[in-house]
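Exercise 7. Given the encoded structure of a 244-residue chain, write a plausible sequence.
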């Protein structure tokens, strides 16, 4: 998945490089009318998450996913309307699913336990959810700045976040043979932020056409705090819906 991020960033950099070359040769931007272009918009992202560097004991499985929702302001360059800076704020969520593994975030141990439950009672569905307040910043390029809904576009950026909530959710407790103990609607949630790194910093990239783009991101900071578990970094890839 890192290769996917590098490819996406590479393509975005290539487009931005071509755009910079165009900037040197096209200096009369007065013919491009962006007066009717919206300066603010929503950006919605949905896709797949994975933890890079996870040891075998951290048995993630299934469709681990994210859902992000941001309110963005778009600030076009006065010297070149093909470029703009996107500034925003919103909520980023990540749901990591595990196979027969209890993530004991309520543990009093010094390190976060990932407990193998293959031979004992376990939840059929088990996930760790983190919710961050995030602030993304993007450098954007539009091939058709006057009409972004009919334009190729690329963006490179970073986002920083602070942890709002972390919890585990187990659904349908079953025995080692897979038989339900309390029924499929039985749910247990446990809340604790002690093991999760409270500050998130990630690099991001997007490329697409119109309101749809392919996005990818790599979390530079570790998922867990230093010393409480393995040094893992979240990688995400998905789709973005955005007017700009």
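Solution.
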């Amino acid at each position: 998945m890192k290769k996917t991020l590098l490819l996406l960033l590479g393509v975005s950099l290539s487009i931005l490089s071509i755009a910079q070359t165009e900037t040197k040769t096209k200096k009369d931007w007065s013919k491009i009318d962006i007066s009717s272009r919206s300066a603010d918009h929503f950006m919605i992202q949905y896709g797949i998450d994975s933890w890079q560097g996870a040891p075998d004991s951290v048995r993630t499985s299934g469709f681990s996913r994210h859902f992000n929702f941001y309110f963005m302001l778009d600030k076009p360059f006065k010297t070149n309307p093909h470029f703009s800076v996107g500034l925003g704020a919103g909520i980023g969520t990540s749901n990591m699913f595990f196979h027969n593994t209890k993530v004991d975030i309520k543990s009093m141990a010094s390190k976060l336990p990932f407990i193998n439950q293959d031979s004992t009672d376990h939840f059929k569905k088990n996930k760790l959810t983190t919710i961050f307040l995030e602030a993304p910043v993007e450098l954007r390029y539009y091939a058709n700045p006057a009409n972004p809904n009919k334009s190729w576009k690329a963006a490179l950026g970073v986002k920083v976040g602070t942890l709002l909530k972390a919890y585990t959710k187990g659904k349908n407790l079953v025995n080692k043979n897979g038989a339900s103990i309390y029924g499929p609607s039985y749910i247990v949630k446990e809340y604790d932020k002690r093991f999760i790194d409270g500050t998130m910093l990630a690099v991001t990239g997007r490329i697409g056409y119109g309101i749809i783009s392919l996005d990818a991101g790599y979390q530079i900071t570790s998922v867990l705090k230093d010393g409480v578990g393995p040094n893992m970094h979240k990688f995400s890839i998905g789709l973005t819906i955005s007017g700009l």
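Remark. The chain is about 10% helix and 50% strand. Students should compare their own answers with the one above.
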